[in-house]
UniProtKB/TrEMBL annotation:
Cofactor dependency: Zn(2+)
Entry's cofactor comment: Binds 1 zinc ion per monomer.
Reactions catalysed, as given in the entry: ssDNA + n NTP = ssDNA/pppN(pN)n-1 hybrid + (n-1) diphosphate
InterPro entries: DNA_primase_core_N_sf, DNA_primase_DnaG, DNA_primase_Znf_CHC2, DnaG_bac, DNAG_N, DnaG_primase, TOPRIM_DnaG_bac, TOPRIM_dom
Descriptive protein name: DNA primase
Domain Toprim: start-end pairs: 262-344
Pfam families the record matches: DNAG_N, Toprim_2, Zn_ribbon_DnaG
GO biological processes: DNA replication, synthesis of primer
UniProt similarity note: Belongs to the DnaG primase family.
Species, as recorded: Roseovarius azorensis
CDD domains (UniProt xref): TOPRIM_DnaG_primases (cd03364)
Molecular function GO terms recorded: DNA binding; DNA-directed RNA polymerase activity; zinc ion binding
Zn finger residue spans: CHC2-type: 43-67
Gene expressing this chain: dnaG
Length: 647
């Protein structure tokens, strides 16, 4: 079966050789340079331990310095899959989303036609260039100079001008023997609806040739000189040469510059790209008047693993950024992502270069935001999350977005990143907990005033609460998988002890990563001593989750029990605190009623403690503390006569 000459070329341009080869090898990332498409691995064709197999992703070839195997994507598939040439092409075409051509005796004729079309397009490039330098292009030249584009830059991009006439280019090309049908097929002219002679597609416009990755002109973009023209920018219609969803402006030169280590910048339009290149940012490209497409994202990743999307600093620019995020989420792969550099409000890259110079653009590129940050900003900017319902809505929409990511590893990392951002938003003071100095942690400020002033707090801290917090923290460290269903309760732990407060914060941030990672992060942040001391406490060591780490059922029951008891204690403290304030003035029947209710709640908690004493024995010291607390409580209440308030 013969293939059209252009088919293999298109196939090679759509595929990344490193992706094709990567299914069969494990890259040596210490030796590889992914940004430059320079990849190394042990050879798949002979046994070796060193990485002597080299893939040049930009040139599309591989070579082994050990066994001297070499070739392209097609030959690699032939050798590794043991298939013939056509079957290898068929496999790669399916991966690239291309349809295998049917047997076509006219294939060569079609290839010849494409060649003829590109020759016609080059004639149009020359015609528009001459018109720019002629008298008719004076206004266009003034405009370009006003935009800071000198003659060298204009020549570099083959800029031109289409005069304000109906058949200027048509007459020029037909006079040179170009068939009328070919001019229309190239998108340079349109058929008249009135039955007259075809007319030029572009009139009174500055012309920007659009070239493919090999540098062949396949289309044009035109900027209107008339400010009242409804279409400020106009692209060629789609033709046999031009598919705008698979084309990037300045593709070939940008690929070459990115190969030399320049950052790949994606701007919105031709003028932005030209201004960026003229200022030294040579790896700049732009989509063609439409939102970035899936095919264009794949093309960008074949040039650079992390392109920077530079968008105008206005509402439309933000919306465009959000559309790109939604498009790219399902396509993400390890090592391939996007970053976003938003220009100052009301400016595009061209404006910023002219007002503040290349340094300002460079600073924005260096501070470009990762995709997860843009995703978070979209869902939180300017919104208030002052109710559980609003927070729940935020959680739901973010979960739905993250589910779009197909790669499970990346999906997990996004989930953790969102969790960290959520923690910072809703716990601003806790998200920057100071580190220990000299082995001591700074005093915590998270205890509420009502807790600090409670008559049940001895020596500044409630010992029983401290014991229960220790059990809760140890249970979560032993089985972090159960955190999700208790997260709200854990966030509300007051933790007067700064060590407990720090452990709580680390658990909330790192529990989803699993027990090993959680423990590693605790040791990294606090050292080994706090964790060892916590788990060695007698009342902690005997609890079921610590004795049976990883048992989710035991951990759930323990956490539910301890959190319920802490809640009952908090209610008692609150009532006592309010009663103390009321008793400073005139005690009334309402006060005694509230104290009576608080006493009953406390008694229920004590009875519950007695029922599970066998399993949750706090030891002799804990029992002594409870007796002292009960005596203090009864002494307070013994001075008051309880009666239900009259109505």
């Amino acid at each position: 079966m013969s293939l059209p000459p252009g088919f293999l070329e298109e196939l090679q341009s759509r595929l990344s050789l490193s992706q094709v080869v990567g299914r069969k090898v494990i890259w040596d990332m210490r030796k590889s340079n992914q940004a430059k498409g320079d990849m190394w691995a042990p050879c798949p064709f002979h046994q070796e331990k060193t990485a002597s197999f080299h893939v040049d992703d930009r040139k599309g070839f591989y070579y082994c310095f050990g066994c001297h195997a070499k070739g392209d994507a097609i030959s690699f598939v032939r050798e590794t899959e043991n298939v013939d040439f056509i079957e290898a092409v068929r496999l790669l075409a399916a991966e690239a989303g291309m349809t295998m051509p049917e047997r076509d005796p006219q294939a060569q004729a079609k290839a010849d036609r494409r060649t003829q079309m590109t020759e016609v397009m080059e004639q149009a490039v020359k015609y528009f260039g001459l018109q720019l330098r002629a008298g008719a292009g004076a206004t266009a030249r003034d405009y370009l100079r006003g935009r800071g584009l000198d003659e060298a830059t204009q020549a570099r991009f083959d800029l031109g001008f289409a005069p304000d006439g109906w058949q200027g280019l048509w007459d020029h090309l037909t006079a040179k023997g170009v068939a009328p049908e070919m001019i229309v097929a190239c998108g340079l002219a349109k058929e008249s609806s009135k039955g007259g002679k075809p007319y030029d597609t572009f009139r009174n416009r500055i012309m920007f040739p659009i070239r493919d990755a090999r540098g062949r002109c396949i289309a044009f973009g035109g900027r209107a000189m008339d400010p009242d023209d409804p279409a400020k920018y106009l692209n060629s219609p789609e033709t046999e040469l031009f598919d705008k969803s698979r084309t990037l402006y300045n593709h070939g030169p940008a690929r070459e510059a990115a190969g030399k280590g320049r950052p790949l910048i994606v701007a919105e339009g031709y003028m932005d790209v030209i201004a960026l290149v003229a200022a030294g940012f040579e790896a700049a490209v732009a989509p063609l008047g439409t939102a970035v497409t899936e095919h264009q994202v794949e093309m960008l990743w074949r040039i650079s693993p992390e392109p920077v999307i530079a968008l105008d600093g206005d509402t439309a620019g933000l919306r465009a950024a959000y559309r790109v995020v939604d498009l790219a989420l399902p396509l993400l792969e390890a090592g391939k992502s996007l970053r976003f550099a938003l220009m100052p409000e009301g400016k595009d890259p061209d404006d910023l270069l002219r007002s503040d110079g290349p340094g300002a653009v460079q600073a924005l590129i260096e501070r470009a935001l990762p995709m997860v940050q843009v995703l978070w900003q979209r869902e939180t900017a300017g919104r208030n999350f002052d109710s559980p319902e609003r927070r729940a809505a935020l959680d739901k929409v973010l979960r739905d977005r993250i589910k779009l990511i197909r790669d499970p590893s990346i999906r997990g990392h996004y989930g953790q990143a969102i969790k960290d951002l959520r923690w910072q938003l809703f716990n601003p003071r806790r998200s920057h907990t100071p580190r220990a100095r000299g082995g001591k942690w700074p005093p915590s400020e998270t205890a509420r005033a009502s807790t600090k002033s409670s008559m049940l707090v001895a020596s500044g801290q409630d010992s029983e609460t401290h014991l229960r917090e220790a059990v809760i923290l140890a249970a979560l460290i032993s089985c972090p998988a159960v955190l999700d269903q208790f997260e709200v309760g854990i966030e509300r732990l007051e933790c007067c002890d700064p060590v407990h407060a720090r452990l709580r914060d680390l658990i909330l941030r790192h529990a989803p990563a699993g027990v090993e990672t959680l423990r590693a992060r605790i040791v990294e942040a606090m050292g080994e001593e706090p964790l060892e001391k916590l788990l060695a406490l007698p009342h902690v060591a005997i609890t079921p989750p610590v004795r049976h780490p990883g048992d989710a059922d035991l951990a759930e029951r323990t956490l539910e029990e301890e959190l319920n008891k802490l809640s009952a204690q908090r209610g008692l403290r609150a009532e006592l605190s309010e009663a103390s304030a009321d008793m400073a003035g005139l005690a009334d029947e309402a006060v005694t009623w509230r104290l009576g209710q608080a006493a009953e709640a406390r008694n229920r908690a004590v009875r519950s403690q007695q029922e599970d004493r066998a399993e949750y024995d706090l030891g002799e010291n804990g029992a002594r503390i409870r007796r002292q607390e009960k005596q203090r409580f009864e002494a307070l209440l013994g001075t008051i006569t309880f009666s239900k308030p009259k109505r």
